[in-house]
Amino acid sequence: TATNECARLLSRNPNHTSAKAYMSFLMATSGKLDEATQMGRGVLNTPGALQNPHVVRGLSLAFRALALSKEEFAVYSGSLEYSPSDLSLHTKTFMVAVFHQMYKEQHQTALNISRLSKQDLHMWWVVASLMLEAKFCKQSSQERQLQLTLARRMSEKALEEGKLKTAEELRLYLDVLEMQDAYPQMIDVLAAGGELSAKIGNDPDLVSRRIELLIKTEAYDDAVVAATDALKIRENWVDYKSYVAAIVGKLKTNPTDAGAEQDAQSTVEAACNAFYHWAQIRGRARGAKLALVELRSSIFASGHNALANDAANLFGEQIWLYVDEFSSKAICYKDIMIYFLAHVTDSAAQTAVQERVSFHSEQLQKRIKLIRESAAQSEDNAQSWVNLEKIRYLLQALSNDCSPESWVSDVNELLCYGIDSAQAQKKQPSCSDMTLLAAQRLIQAAFLAFSEPSKRSQLCASLFNALCVLEAGIKLNADSFSLKLYAIRIYLYLSCYERARALYDSLNIKNLQNDTLGFLMVGQGISLGCFINDLEACYEGVDFYDRSKWKVPRELEAVYKNGTFSNLLDFIEFHENLVHSFQRECTHRCALRGEALEIGSQKAVIEKWSLADVVSIDHTEETLAALHDNRDVSVLSLLTPSTMDKWNLEKLTRATPLPGSSWVLINT
């Protein structure tokens, strides 16, 4: 209807600029990009056309649809020549610059708005624009420093005049100072009194930021005091870590004589006592006790003279004290795994590594038998067993155990509880975890036993057994994300695309997760000849990336309207990561390849590709280096670090190699 109406108006008056502007938009949305661009630019260059608000609206829509940022900005900046005092029009011009991340134009427009408006918010638009121009625009160091200095002076003046009123504005000021490496000034600002002091004190992020700055400037005593004051008020793991970092930094700067060593012991004891005190407060035991482990770990890693002599033993013992108290919590293993690794692997001597593995294995055996026998008594006991089994898995890998038999020696016991028990019928969470553990052991043993190409058939048979376990677990708990992910991986490894795709669809992956999880499925169907199904997955991803180009900049507009400047750099970084997403390039190429293979006809393929967005299809080494890899391979719930290739089930279960830079170039 809209197209017909525009055509009717143009038939009566071929120079009807409003009709041309809207017709340009309609052609852009229907795929007639060249005609839309030509008509839109023709209207833009028509003298006096931008006096008409309908033309401005139509052209802005057209150039937005055509992704012509300079032309869209020219529409609004040109219309300002006829209404130079229209604040609303200036604001729209500013938002266009924000949307397209045109920082120089954004800065100039913000200045014009601040001259017209008396609102403090618009002054902060200028500060933000200066900061972004300095950060992202290519210019000399002198120009960059000039912009930052101007932004800093405007912020300081606002602080002096009481116009810096919100924590969001304070964060913006701090970002400007940080870009100038003005850390002492940042500390002074965060130590301000008056109304600002209350805002800082009620904002955990700002409190933590001050502590981190004190550590960065090596003011360790002040950092300890600030962290102590913060932890007296609230639980915050970041502040616990900063407290520990300040203690260790203080120890490193102390002299090395006997008296200094005694002072160091006293410092560590005082920190331990503080953690024990906070652990008595309801709801804070886990954070405080984990901070004790972090303290022992940091002292151990620092190698601080006499303290380090006992650190290895104290560190190992502290790990097990934490496990004993919190093994009934599902998150226990995630909390403690990094500390097991730090204790065992932080040594050049292989004998020391084996001694520490043996120590932990002895500690494990003391506990695991008793907890197995009592697992049926309560879900807490069962969860403790799960965490101890996860630790056993890790220690087995760290000891370089290559015996397939030892990896599956207790699998039956795990399966009896995970699948064939009263607790399993009640769908207790520990049962799904135990089933997954059993499957992981079966998978690990299969790759250890049948890694040679000549044993591919035995490997597939063993992996099929693991699949049976995973499917049994899924039948009992259809909501288990981890069980499904492993099943998807094994099905693809065994070339069973349909079941893998059905499980993938049942995950209800959010749009954003296409960027982090798309690598699990995209392209796998094409390699197995399932073109149509794979194309559906590809286009779900392509649609997500297309919508993200418009959606995220809208969030940036909201940042300025609401003055929530703390989100500014985060949204820009997020947008850049999506626009330059490595998975986007992979998904795009998989879609184009799938079209070619599915259609078959050269002419039909070219017609199909002509409608595709292939602006970014060409790549040089420079543009390839700018891509950001957002793929999250850690989502596969590994029990060992990703650096241990022989024990990395994510790498072992890849049906095809994870696409890299060479793959993108080959398919360019």
What descriptive keywords fit this protein?
mainly alpha; single chain; about 675 residues
Mean pLDDT: 90
- By oligomeric state, this entry counts as single chain
Largest sheet: none
Distance between the termini: 40 Å
Helix content: over 70%
Our Rg estimate from Cα atoms comes to 31 Å
Q: What structural category characterises the helix and strand content?
A: mainly alpha
Low-confidence segments, given as residue ranges, are: none
Give me the number of helical elements.
Answer: 37
Strand content: under 5%
Number of strands: 0
- Gross morphology is flat
Structural features, described:
This protein has helices spanning 2-12, 17-29, 33-44, 53-65, 69-79, 87-99, 103-116, 120-136, 141-160, 167-179, 183-190, 194-201, 204-216, 220-233, 237-253, 258-279, 285-302, 305-326, 332-345, 350-374, 379-398, 404-407, 411-418, 422-425, 429-449, 456-476, 481-493, 497-506, 513-517, 524-527, 531-562, 568-579, 582-599, 602-610, 621-625, 649-652, 661-666. The protein has 37 helices and no strands. The relative contact order is 0.04. It has 668 residues and is an all-alpha fold.
